[in-house]
Amino acid sequence: MGNITGALAGALAVLLVAGTVVGLRRFAGWRPALGTRADLASFETLHLASLASPALRAGLTEAGATKAVKHLRALLGSRAVALTDGDRLLAWDGDGQDGLAKSATEHAHSVMSTGRSQVLQTADYGSSIRAVVITPLVSGEAVIGTLSAYVDFSSAGLIRAVDEVGRWVSGQLELAELDASRTRLAEAEVRALRAQISPHFIYNSLNAIASFVRTDPDRARELLLEFADFTRYTFRRSGDFTTLADELRAINGYLLLERARFGDRLHVTLRVAPEVLAVSMPFLCLQPLVENAVRHGLENKEGQGTVTILAEDAGADCLISVEDDGLGMAPERVRAALSGEPGTDSVGLGNVDERLRKIFGDPYGLTVATAPGAGTKVSLRIPKFQPGVHA
After folding, report:
1. Distance between CA atoms of residues 65 and 176, nearest Å
2. Intervals of CATH 3.30.450.40 along the chain
3. CA distance between the termini of the chain
4. pLDDT score, position 196
5. Which of 174, 143, 129, 125 is nearest to 3 (CA)?
6. Each residue of 19-77: pLDDT tens digit?
7. Which CATH number does 2-179 carry?
8. Fold classification of 213-383 (topology level)
9. pTM for this prediction
10. Contact predicate 340/350, CB 8 Å
11. Are 7 and 172 contacting, i.e. CB atoms less than 8 angstroms apart?
């Protein structure tokens, strides 16, 4: 990440220089009421970069290149700009679309193979444009495409500007790959959590349903519908986030199935402030905590046991806790579960803790209060608003 940040900082510095040249030319003869011409040109440069950035953050695609290329041409002040992935022309903006554009990938071949910028003369292509400056677009160590600026004549300043704009574009593409990697990691973490939940719960639920098939068919049917709703929610594919209301609805189905197995041994207390029901949170964030309370806290406890779920309004945050009065755990077992050590049999405790910290920051991880024979209370805070977090 440091390399990306450094590259962006360097590119931005030269972008400002290049933009100043373009801006001074564009605004010659007009003196702004506020600020200098250089200030105005710097503002325009940053504005154009901000317009191109969202499209590039989606990766080097035809749709993204088409949205970004006109802003890149305005940034460079060139007659035309082309973006390629080496094999295809992804986008063209400016003059020469009917002639030079057909040769854009041919112009890019040498740069794709060497990874070095190149200046070519274009007079042989029957256009009034005389030169093209081509620079590589890089992600990691791989050349993934090219940026080409078509001009009437090339200069050392223009070549440097094209190179630096290319580095800035490369930085945006690397950030796009980083975003994609984070998304793949988040999806893998949810898949891992589902794998932990499903075998134990499915086996016990189906056994409980089967026990009612002959003695109470209506109850068996109701439980089977609850089981279908819960598994549909658990294995859904729409988004990384859910609302507290939806998570509690799934937990209610889970507890109905568990109460069919435990009978009067399992009691549930639920207290939720209505104003926090719409709070967005990571998908499958609370259900593993409730399953741990039932499975490890109460399953082997003699007599009755209670699971208490609280959700309270706390200003900018929502405070949530899942507590049981079961067997409790030794501190070293809690540490092993939170660190995800192999051999721990907690259902996704470390997974949930890690996802909360990645999304909201370290202060938002799980807090576990427990001791052998004293039950367990797992607490967490969810910000009511976090950029990028919405169900």
Report:
1. 13
2. 2-179
3. 28
4. 55
5. 174
6. 444 443 444 444 444 467 766 666 676 777 778 778 887 788 888 888 888 988 888 88
7. 3.30.450.40
8. Heat Shock Protein 90 (3.30.565)
9. 0.54
10. yes
11. no
